[in-house]
Write a structure and sequence with these properties.
α1 (3-39) packs antiparallel against α2 (44-83). This protein has helices spanning 3-39, 44-83. The protein is elongated, with a radius of gyration of 25 Å. It is mainly α and 100 residues long. The relative contact order is 0.09. It has a domain at 24-81.
């Protein structure tokens, strides 16, 4: 996968969370409304399913964020580990020893 494709995929994942939060609650609420009208229990299924959809989407966004952060941390640790020993020069350009 190219860097550009990876960036596009990352951007898509970041923007999809908001839509997911809204649409899952709305879709579940519509299913709940249909069930309420069918069984005459308005508004219990509508409220229950809307809240369930929202909580499910919120959990999905949270776990996806947590997974992304773990991946970023492991990549950063790998980069730091790869840089150790490759550049032993200190900020003065020498061997890192302080000048007297």
């Amino acid at each position: 996968m190219s860097a550009k494709e990876g960036q596009l995929r990352s951007d898509y994942r970041q923007t999809s969370g908001g839509y997911e939060l809204v649409f899952s609650g709305v879709i579940f609420a519509l299913v709940g409304l249909w069930l309420d009208r069918r069984f005459g229990t308005v508004p219990w299924f509508t409220i229950g399913l809307a809240v369930t959809g929202f909580i499910g989407a919120l959990a999905n966004v949270y776990y996806r964020y947590d997974q992304d952060m773990a991946r970023h941390e492991s990549e950063a640790a790998a980069r730091r580990a790869g840089n150790i020993g490759s550049n032993n020069a200190g900020p003065d350009g020498g061997n890192g020893a302080a000048a007297s």
